[in-house]
Amino acid sequence: MTVTAAAGFEAASVAAGLKSTGALDLALLVNRGPSSAGAAVFTSNRAKANPIIWSQQVIADGDVRAIVLNSGGANCFTGAQGFQTTHATAEAVAEHLGVDAGDVLVCSTGLIGEQLDREKLLTGVATAADALTTDGGEDAARAIMTTDSVPKTVTVEGPGYTIGGMAKGAGMLAPGLATMLSVITTDADLPAAELDRALREATRLTFDRLDSDGCMSTNDQVTLMASGASGVTPSTEEFTLLLVDACSSLVLQLQADAEGASHDIQIHVHGAASEDDAVEVGRSVARNNLFKAAIFGNDPNWGRVLAAIGTTSAEFDPYAVDVTMNGVRVCHAGGPDRPREEVDLSDRIVSVLIELGVGDAAAMILTNDLTHDYVHENSAYSS
Amino acid sequence: MTVTAAAGFEAASVAAGLKSTGALDLALLVNRGPSSAGAAVFTSNRAKANPIIWSQQVIADGDVRAIVLNSGGANCFTGAQGFQTTHATAEAVAEHLGVDAGDVLVCSTGLIGEQLDREKLLTGVATAADALTTDGGEDAARAIMTTDSVPKTVTVEGPGYTIGGMAKGAGMLAPGLATMLSVITTDADLPAAELDRALREATRLTFDRLDSDGCMSTNDQVTLMASGASGVTPSTEEFTLLLVDACSSLVLQLQADAEGASHDIQIHVHGAASEDDAVEVGRSVARNNLFKAAIFGNDPNWGRVLAAIGTTSAEFDPYAVDVTMNGVRVCHAGGPDRPREEVDLSDRIVSVLIELGVGDAAAMILTNDLTHDYVHENSAYSS
């Protein structure tokens, strides 16, 4: 049910012809209310796609009636013509639904640097607007896929209300945000400001901790829409906890489907002086190609972990660091400990525990290995 | 002739048994004077190998009589035992040559996290000390190789004096420094302070601009030793220019031999507000795995160039950027320009010109593509 699991939401998806394969490539999601509160967080990339520029304006007043998402093209680096396409798409949605275009979010994903076919897009919007249904969530999760091999969806039940979500993303997965599109809906009744606070806290702990390939997208957007249809107003604390659950599930699904990956790596950093330090250390390891290639080769090369940590500004002493890989402490106090042969890296899930020993802060960063298939998929993407 | 091209230097290389292949793995280079001035720059990685920690002390007074380099092990993350091995190596060199151990630099390269065999190392030093010769430079360049496929050497003739150099490095090539060892000798007569100034300027413009895989080593060291045997004291300006020439040659050789690479990419950033901005922009592109994989696939994916620039803090407007690849301007003012099909990326050398259009500063960053062979070599290195 995904984004239509919560009461008050309808969705429809169509094959508008933006994908050459003829697969679903346009999803429309409408909030029927009574509330139209919303919040969104966006890529921190300074080169932003046209739908990001548009959507940042739309979300400013916390009011969202609909969101339209397309795959088959990112509409990024497409200049004034591209922005007009985004604008025209929102106008078309508004016209068909009888809402204000200023309350319509737009998301696009796919190749950057090429114009979207505006006619196909507008025709697709018209078709979708006539097909809206309360069980349209599953198809919507398929319509936003690019190189994803499976749709990513989640439903979390709260006391008297529901949170549902979908996400796409298989490459360019790096904060902030992890490169993807995600829409999360709820029938809880919360004002936009509280949705915004909950969403920022949840993305900070989930999407922002996924760093598959260090490449930050131009099109990232996580949107949260609340219909209020359940009539329940939870505490922000409770709602945030459930939202973190929902986002965590989506993030693990994104990691598991990362382009070409053969290992899902969890980097746990403990004993840091601050959470920022823990995140920086985890990310430095997550972005180290030599470490990632070693994991692909089932090689517990802990020296590359320490070499990566050494590039950070985090508080640490190289001769106080312990590194444990899949339960085997291979490095103690910055020197060799258990033999690396004891580490079994044959499973897809790999756990790397880095103990800095200088404080009490911790963070987990999720990443993937660097594989032949990653190189292959990303050398062939646009051809 | 490499490091023995300049008068006053003798070198010897031996197979000490550190490499399991039986290849040359230890080089000893001595400065017979009359001057013993020297300078060195080191990795900025905060996790430093034992020979780096030692050599930073040795160079402090600008006096260097000898340098001993081994492949077959980096002596990094090897704790007190590892540091004692470095110390004992310098002591052995000092004893055999009749110099002070505090004037003996030590460099190590190879796998990190494993102890070097101290006995083999000290036996190798004794053998090398008895075999020093003024034509030992070529063998020295071979003895320091790890995954390098060819030795890297250079000789530059100045008016009345000579600069010779060698370098090794094929992976972990990222500033500062580009991950490698290099020794440069000259028979010019310059005091240590001027050598230091010349070396910092030269490495800033050469070694620090090579960023093959974004992975910073723990063992980088570039050493400059002057014997004064020519009796010529050039101006620092002239000497620096020739030193830049020598370093440039070595850096291009390192780039051309980078592990698994199929393209040598020159990223020219023009029109930046400052040189720092130009370097940051160039480096962001050089470290973008998606861009590097695209070049491997001969795909002129300029959108990935702009997406990478967007992650920097450099002054720029995404809608004012031009990108030209191998002479074809594929992006103008942040939008599509010439068709990407016009770009021929079949040659090994690839030129990417990024025109930011906000100032007059420029910089060039050298990198390589991300290939199947890179993944293969670095997933198998330690096994």
UniProtKB/TrEMBL annotation, chains A, B:
GO cellular component, one term: cytoplasm
Record has Acyltransferase as a keyword: yes
Protein's pathway: Amino-acid biosynthesis; L-arginine biosynthesis; N(2)-acetyl-L-ornithine from L-glutamate: step 1/4; Amino-acid biosynthesis; L-arginine biosynthesis; L-ornithine and N-acetyl-L-glutamate from L-glutamate and N(2)-acetyl-L-ornithine (cyclic): step 1/1
Site keyed Involved in the stabilization of negative charge on the oxyanion by the formation of the oxyanion hole: positions: T109, G110
Entry-linked InterPro entries: Arg_biosynth_ArgJ, ArgJ-like_dom_sf, ArgJ_beta_C
Residue numbers binding substrate: T146, K168, T179, E259, N378, S383
Principal location: cytoplasm
Active-site residues per Swiss-Prot or TrEMBL entry: T179
GO molecular function terms attached to this record: L-glutamate N-acetyltransferase activity; L-glutamate N-acetyltransferase activity, acting on acetyl-L-ornithine as donor
Domain of life: Bacteria
PANTHER family named among the record's database cross-references: ARGININE BIOSYNTHESIS BIFUNCTIONAL PROTEIN ARGJ, ARGININE BIOSYNTHESIS BIFUNCTIONAL PROTEIN ARGJ, MITOCHONDRIAL
Function, as annotated: Catalyzes two activities which are involved in the cyclic version of arginine biosynthesis: the synthesis of N-acetylglutamate from glutamate and acetyl-CoA as the acetyl donor, and of ornithine by transacetylation between N(2)-acetylornithine and glutamate.
Name of protein: Arginine biosynthesis bifunctional protein ArgJ
Species for this entry: Microcella pacifica
Gene designation per UniProt: argJ
